[in-house]
Amino acid sequence: MVLQIQIIVGGIVFNFLLIGIYFLLHHEIEKFEAVKEKILLTVKRARRSYFLSYAVVLIFVSATFFTKGQLRLVFIFVSLAALIFLEILHDSKRLVLTENQTIIVKGFISYRASLVEYKDIILVEVKDDILGRVLGYGDIIINVYGAKEYSLEKIPNFLKVKNIIEEGKLRPVVQVRGS
User: Fold this and answer.
1) Which CATH number belongs to the domain containing residue 131 in this structure?
2) Does 177 fall in a domain?
3) How far lies 159's CA from each of 2, 75, 124, 132, 142, in Å?
4) What is the tens place of the pLDDT at every residue in 27-75?
5) What are phi and psi of 68, to 5 degrees?
6) 91 Cβ partners below 8 Å, 6+ apart?
7) Domain limits at 90?
8) For the whole model, what pTM was predicted?
9) Quick check: 100 and 168 in contact, CB under 8 A?
């Protein structure tokens, strides 16, 4: 009985800690979207790309129906923790397209934001595989002057993103009021 209480308290504390980390991460990453320009599109990694991870979590959830006692509690809390962790991973990479630039934000504990103006982009490549075609996502690789390359994997609507960037390269630079 004491062990069950310890598992319950530990599981609740751990999951609340993960939820707190998620909200902190989400709040911090949204700061990078506070630009003065009009945001055309914001994309994150496709949730469908976590298909296999969600299947493993579903196995853990279904295992709770076939187990009893402490093991059931462990399966419940591990499933919850895995779902929260998948949300943290989902929110840790973001691509923001504005009128003049692309903002690429990556990070979990520490963040790295790269601002690339459309005029500095040399080439935008897209890649997909069979699973990506079926589930509707692909990779985007942005090559800029100075031999720098930015890549984001498993992005939904990746062709739309490519088209917005290509159109931005052709568009004259939009002046932002108040700057």
Assistant:
1) 2.30.29.30
2) no
3) 55, 39, 10, 12, 13
4) 776 776 667 788 889 898 888 888 888 888 888 888 888 888 788 888 8
5) -135, 160
6) 22, 25, 26, 29, 44
7) 2-170
8) 0.75
9) yes
